[in-house]
Design a protein that fits this description.
- The chain is of the alpha+beta class.
- The protein is 22% helix and 27% strand.
- It has three domains: 70 residues, Immunoglobulin-like (Sandwich); 256 residues, SGNH hydrolase (Rossmann fold), CATH 3.40.50; 104 residues, no CATH class.
- A hairpin with a 4-residue loop joins strand 18 and strand 19.
- Helix 4 crosses helix 10 and helix 8 crosses helix 9.
- The longest helix has 20 residues.
Amino acid sequence: MKLLKLTVAVLAIQALILSSVQADITVSHIFGDHMVLQRDLAVPVWGKADAGETVKVTFGGQTKEATADKAGDWMVRLDAMKANAVPQTLSIAGANKLDFKDVLIGEVWICSGQSNMAWTVGGVTQSKEEVAAANYPNIRHITVPRKPADTPQSDFDGSWSVCSPKTAGGFTAVGYFFGRKLHKELNVPIGLINSSWGGTRIEPWTSLGGFKQVAKQDFAKPIIASVSKGEMGPNHQSPTRLYRGMITPLKPYGIRGAIWYQGESNGSEGITYYHKKHALVGGWREAWNQGDFPFYWVQLANFRDDKNEPAGGDGYAKIRDFQRKAQDIKNTGMAVIIDIGETKDIHPKNKQDVGARLAQLALANDYGKDVVPSGPLYKKLTIKGKKITIQFDNVGAGLIVGKKEGLTPVTEDSSTGLKRFAIAGKDKVWVWADAKITGDTVVVSSAEVAKPVAVRYGYSGNPLGANLYNKDGFPASPFRTDDW
């Protein structure tokens, strides 16, 4: 009898020891109170547990189970759900239980880039009024702290915030105005994931897989070689280090897509940035394994003194042109803001129009709204005698000479003609051109060029006066038809 009691006591102690060393279930901080889950998608929920442990995830009337593998990794996918603004609790149960409250279902977007994406609502034009009016409890926001890393990270220190006058001042301004417009138009909850860092180049945000997709490019070869060897570089500007520290902890959280405002730190580049943009987008899409999700970016704003030369090519002219050309990536788009920049400030305070123009792309392309996605984009040219006729995509309701002042909507300006069009012949000598709207086209000519071959529009660092718009209120992108 004594032996039996001793055996029972030993077994009890062993059970107690085993239970005490059993690891708790953990998940990334992308999961938390007040989060938004992506609607109409089989939403992944994942984390860590003891190998072989059964994990149950319960939400919205459904329960899913997974068994942690040898490495302790587990994942379930919730069945796709419709948008829902009624707060619910997501529970994860195993050795311990995690309850995340006030969870909504709606549209989730990653907001990334450098300082113009990191710029907060508290620093925009009319910031006091904007913050005071930010009473949108169904808009949620989370910030990923700045963290470069040599190895892919699985977590970060952050939490979701509910949009209110007390919190909105710290939200990414571009993301907030983007999300606010979507929220008003779609009437669904919006989740904004802010992962941005001022002054950063595009390379640290790009994955190794992305660089491999453009491996034939000279700039990519040494990056692939060094990163593959684990030679990551010394700082946060080194290739892949922000991707590993600030993007990998997010994947594969269910998202609709991403918005991107970056390029100033690569502003002296041209075609190399085009290929780097392909690497960035392709790498993120490969990592998420969620198809060709939407990816929209901001073309760089007008900045620095206006050189006012017909040939242009100064400042951000080249990188803008290749930002435009990078729209050949499937399911992408670009918001043009050459009319709202500030000559002396690389951080234009009008973030309202930036966010709204990005939202316009999503409304047109992803949400089935019958709206023009952006301003006119160069399509092709036709040369006939002394004139070149330019055709555009996204003409919308028609072309106009427009004027934009502050936060007020674009108005038609009948007091002047089109400006910042230049024309050249085979001698490659550029002169300012006469440009006139004819139907849905622009006809360009000059008495100085008898046999024109090419046109440039707004092709300079700060093309002040560039004034081609569509009647829907969106500016035309700068472009050039030559490759000189």
